[in-house]
């Protein structure tokens, strides 16, 4: 989430409304994760959905990571945080805190760029009874930053289980000031809009202090809720969805749609479409957890659009890329807008879609899509291929930052 800093936003000429969808089924639990790039020129969100921990196979883990100043931190923690949590023994609050700080330390030492950071909201579900009629779970939620976890209970009530970690909060502001920083315009040192995050070495560079006392810290808040399951829903999502919607509005929207759609992926796609239409310019990622009572989702199902038509889906790896067929063809849905753009803006939009598909599905852009785009907008193939080979503005900036003169590996913070 580049909006976390005051750096100029790199926006596309049109929002990219393709959805990356990942479905997962574990005994008693179904989850779906949806990501949409939206207006931003690159995708900095990541997620890890419905993972059974090897050392604690009865537990299920999921997490959403909202990156800023580059995608390195969100991708690193999406791939690795659960391995750190899996090594815990008692799952106490203190153990969560120490584990997250240790993971952050490893990332900061191993990463060549000291600008990347990410928020994190993650959960563990542990079954607490053996009833065949309705399993119940203990839900443990960890939060670092301003992503959120909502518990929608009994198809009626909503609890926001997380608090946004903002620099203007009294305890956060005191820590920032004590560490030698300041809060200006609601931001740490006038730059970062969250007071807790993984990564962000530039806000953790006081070697006289332990990581837990820096201007920005990776200390999670930990919340536990007993006896959830049945008709309950748990939502993890980045703050891009909340730019224009409150937690209550999001919950009300999902409750309304849950009675209309069997496929929860469609619910999340519609939620992101709503947030986009209201003015959100951020990447959006959300994971929805459902329990046994909910009809399991087949991996072959795809959500229909508002007219009841099936979107086109390209499968690769764990993800599907699902979007309206017209958008894949760059046809009727986008032509009226794309034809008004300059050649450069058209190329930027097309390149963003290709990079999005490669990011989630590890697939190359099909040749027929290149040919269709070339023919529709009278742009020669050499120009298109050159555009696809160039990094996005955010990627280019990250590469430049990585080559800066900042120290890379020889860092050591004070002991507790």
Walk me through this protein's architecture.
By secondary structure, this protein is an alpha+beta fold. The protein has helices at 72-86, 93-110, 170-178, 247-258, 264-277, 325-329, 332-338, 343-361, 367-377, 381-389, 393-402, and strands spanning 11-26, 29-40, 45-53, 56-68, 117-127, 137-144, 148-153, 157-160, 183-184, 187-188, 198-199, 221-228, 233-237, 284-291, 312-316, 319-323. Helix 4 (247-258) packs across helix 5 (264-277). The longest helix is centred in the C-terminal third of the chain and has 19 residues, at 343-361. It is globular, with a radius of gyration of 21 Å.
**Helix and strand element order:** EEEEHHEEEEHEEEEEHHEEEHHHHHH
Instruction: Report the biggest beta sheet as strand number plus sense, adding barrel if it closes.
Output: 8 strands, antiparallel
Any idea how many domains? 2
Strand order of the largest sheet: 8-7-13-14-2-1-16-15
What structural class results from the helix and strand content?
alpha+beta
Task: Give the radius of gyration.
Answer: 21 Å
Helicity range: 25-40%
Low-pLDDT parts are: 294-317, 323-334, 392-409
- Give the overall shape: globular
CATH architecture tag of the largest domain: 4-Layer Sandwich
The end-to-end span amounts to 31 Å
How many β-strands, per DSSP?
A: 16
Mean pLDDT: 81
CATH topology (fold) name of the largest domain:
Phosphatase 2c, domain 1
Summary tags:
alpha+beta, 416 residues
What's the layout of helices and strands?
Elements: E1 11-26, E2 29-40, E3 45-53, E4 56-68, H1 72-86, H2 93-110, E5 117-127, E6 137-144, E7 148-153, E8 157-160, H3 170-178, E9 183-184, E10 187-188, E11 198-199, E12 221-228, E13 233-237, H4 247-258, H5 264-277, E14 284-291, E15 312-316, E16 319-323, H6 325-329, H7 332-338, H8 343-361, H9 367-377, H10 381-389, H11 393-402
Helix pairs in contact: 1-2, 4-5
């Amino acid at each position: 989430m580049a909006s976390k800093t005051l750096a100029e936003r790199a926006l596309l000429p049109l929002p990219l409304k393709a959805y990356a969808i990942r479905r997962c089924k574990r005994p008693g639990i179904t989850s779906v994760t949806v990501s949409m790039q939206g207006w931003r020129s690159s995708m900095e969100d990541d997620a890890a959905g419905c993972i059974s921990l090897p050392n604690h196979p009865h537990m299920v883990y999921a997490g959403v990571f909202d990156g800023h100043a580059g995608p390195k931190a969100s991708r690193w923690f999406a791939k690795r945080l659960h391995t750190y949590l899996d090594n815990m023994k008692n799952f106490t609050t203190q153990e969560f805190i120490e584990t997250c700080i240790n993971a952050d330390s490893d990332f900061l030492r191993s990463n060549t760029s000291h600008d990347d950071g990410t928020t994190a909201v993650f959960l563990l579900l542990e079954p607490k009874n053996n009833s065949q009629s309705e399993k119940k779970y203990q839900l443990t939620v960890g939060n670092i930053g301003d992503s959120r976890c909502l518990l929608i209970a009994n198809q009626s009530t909503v609890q926001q289980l997380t608090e946004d970690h903002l620099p203007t909060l009294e305890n956060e502001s005191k820590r920032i000031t004590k560490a030698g920083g300041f809060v200006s315009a609601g931001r740490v040192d006038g730059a970062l809009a969250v007071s807790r995050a993984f990564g962000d070495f530039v806000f953790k560079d006081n070697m006289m202090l332990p990581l837990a006392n820096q201007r920005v810290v990776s200390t999670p808040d930990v919340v536990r809720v007993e006896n959830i399951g049945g008709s309950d829903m748990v939502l993890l999502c980045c703050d891009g969805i909340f730019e224009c919607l409150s937690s209550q509005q999001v919950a009300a929207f999902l409750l309304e749609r849950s009675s209309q759609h069997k496929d929860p992926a469609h619910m999340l796609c519609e939620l992101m479409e709503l947030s986009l239409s209201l003015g959100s310019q951020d990447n959006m990622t959300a994971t929805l957890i459902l329990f046994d009572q909910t009809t399991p989702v087949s991996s072959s199902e795809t959500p229909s659009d508002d007219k009841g038509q099936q979107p086109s889906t390209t499968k690769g790896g764990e993800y599907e890329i699902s979007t309206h067929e017209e958008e894949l063809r760059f046809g009727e849905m986008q032509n009226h807008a794309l034809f008004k753009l300059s050649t450069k803006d058209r190329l930027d939009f097309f390149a963003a879609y290709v990079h999005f598909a490669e990011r989630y599905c590890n697939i190359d852009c099909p040749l027929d899509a290149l040919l269709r785009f070339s023919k529709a907008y009278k742009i020669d193939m050499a120009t298109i291929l050159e555009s696809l080979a160039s990094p996005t503005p955010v990627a280019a900036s990250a590469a430049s930052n990585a080559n800066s003169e900042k120290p890379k590996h020889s860092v050591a913070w004070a002991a507790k």
